Task: structure prediction
Amino acid sequence: ARRKRVLSGIQPTGGLHLGNYFGAMRSWINLQELYDCYFCMVDLHAITLPHDPIALQEDTRKAAALYMACGIDPAKSVIFVQSHVSAHAELAWLLMTQTPVGWLNRMIQWKEKSRKVGSEEVGAGLLTYPVLQAADILAYQTDVVPVGEDQKQHIELARDIAERMNSRYGGKPWKKLGGRGGRIFKVPDIMMPPAGARVMSLTEGSAKMSKSAELDASRINLLDSPKDVQNKIKRAKTDAGEGLEYDNPERPEARNLLTLYALATGHSLESAQREVGSLRWGDFKPRLADAMVAMLEPIQQRYNEIRADDAHLTQVLSEGAAKADATASRSLERCQQAMGF
Ligand code: ADP
Ligand code: NA
Result:
C-alpha cells in the first residue's frame, strides 16, 4: 500500500514567523518519516495582496532555504515552488467553475482581508484563492494537510469541493466517456498541532501572529537577529497581573507569552508554568527572549549555510518541481477527462 500523502505550504512573502513554524513547519519534520510529503512555497497565493515583484523570487528562495534549515529534508520530502507546477492554476480554474460564490463569501479570511483593502479595489483572487488552495491539495490526492487553526475553514472548503467533484463527475459521466469512473479526488483530512495551532500577536492579544499584520513588532520572524528578538519581547504587550498563567481566559497576554516559552523550550504548558509562573514580567521576559534566541540560533546557522550554496538550492527546487509535476498532472488529467475534456 502506498504511504499516506501529506501536503502543506506557506506564502513566501514577508518572511516566515513563529506562527508558521509552530503552527505548521515543526509538525512537518516528524511527518516526513511516515508519510509521502510535499511541501511548497505558495507564491501564487502571495500575489493576492499588493506585492513587490522584485522581492518575490528572493522571498521564495528564502522560504525554501528556511524549510530546509528547519529540518525538511529534500531526500525525504518533495520541496517545490507552486508556480513551477502549472497543474495548480489549471486545476484551480476547473474547480472554480464548480464552487458557489456563496461558499467563498463565507470565508473568514476573505472577510477580514477584504475589509482592510476595501471592496472595490480588492482583487478577485483574494476571493477565489481558497479554490486555488483546494487545487494545491487535491492535485496530490492528499490524505492529510498539517496546518494551523486559521486554515481550518479553507481545508473544510477543499473537502466540500472534492466531494462535489466526486459526486458530480466521478461516476457515470466519466465511465460513459471511457474513463474508469469513481473517485476523482481523495477527500483530505486536516491535522492541527496540539500546541502552537494558533500563535498570537505580540502587540495585539486578540489577533494571530501574521506576516500581513502591519507592525513588524507584532511577530518574531525566524530570521530575526537576537537583538530584534530581545527588543520585540521587551515591547510585547503585558497586563497588570502578576506571574504567568496559561489557563486564565482573562489574561490572554500571560497565556500567549507562557505558551511561546513552552514552545521554545519544548516543555508542556503545565511544566512551563511551574518553572516560570511565579516570575514578574520584568524577570520573565529576558528568560523568554533567551529561550527564543537559543531555539532560533541553529536554524539561522543552517539557513546561512544553505544560502551559501545557491546552485544546490536551485537543484533542489528543480528536482522538486519535476516530482510534484508528475503527481499533480495525473490528477489534473483525471479531472479533465471526467469533465469531458
Ligand atoms: P500568514 O498568515 O502569516 O500569511 P500563511 O497564510 O502563509 O501565513 O500560512 C502558512 C501556515 O502557517 C498555515 O499552515 C497557517 O495555518 C500557519 N500559521 C500562520 N499563522 C499562524 C499562527 N499565528 N499560529 C499558528 N499557525 C499559523
Ligand atoms: Na494566512
